[in-house]
Amino acid sequence: MTCFVDSTRDGRSLFRLPLPILLAATLAVLSNQGADGLAAPPAAERDRPETARLDVSRYVVDVEARKIRGVFGNASGLTFRPESRSLFLVINSPTRMVEIDLQGKVKRSIRLAGFEDTEGVAYLGQDRFGILDERRRHLCVVHVEKTARSIKFSDLKRVENTAPPEQGGWYLLVDPKPTPNVGLEGLSFDKENRRFFIVKEKNPRKFFHVTLGPDPDSVPMITEPWKKSRLKSLRQKDLSGVHFHSATRQLLVMSHESRNIVQCSLDGRPVSRLSLDVGSAGLKRGVPQAEGITMDDRQVLYVLSEPNLFYVFKPPPTETNK
Where does the pLDDT of residue 37 fall: very low under 50, low under 70, confident under 90, or very high at 90 and above? Predict the structure, then answer.
């Protein structure tokens, strides 16, 4: 006799599966775990085009510890703007946003007037950027015109129980609990789902979603989707940066104290790991204080280390040429 598992809700049958099929499906899920404890890529991901695959453990350094001339200290978050094929970084003291080319040469500097401790930055599209103010625990959204030389915090509108303005800048309190100098550090943005990813450095480490909702009238929703056990599974002493990789829908979470980057699923399951220590990825010296991370549309990885060091990592040539 064939056994069935029947699940119902409100008296209505949701599904009926033969027990052998259910057991096979369960075994398939359990087998999707690598021998090293990292989650194996799902079958759908393995069948994707090569451009939609990612394994940061295979990356090697191409540009190492290049000093950014014109930036003398406190370089932090990093983001890629595809329209200009350039990078934007933020400095927390003095508070500035700096545009550089893909080799680390400064193109322009933008004063962030009235900001206090700018740590993370993410490009949102249409010349809008998200910026983290660590000391105030704010997520700020600003519009940066091509000729802009200054952005004023006083021009931003506070958003609490209302929707962000369709035009103009705004800011939002993300974490109500102050933790001086170990607060909000990394920022990235999922454009398709209108969602920010934010990491808090430590004491304690935290991972936030700030979801703007499907339409301009939506009130932002702040959640902490990862439990302490999930954060612990990353095996990182602190969280200094995050990047959302849209092609694979995975995250790159960076730690400057552990000197590594963990590639993980959106629910925090580690997939791959890149060490930033001496001897790894071709590095002659370890990355001293990795604070900024981003990736361009060709899967080239960029890392920024305080005070002003610029790194570029690329996949092995055999992968790049496929």
Answer: very low
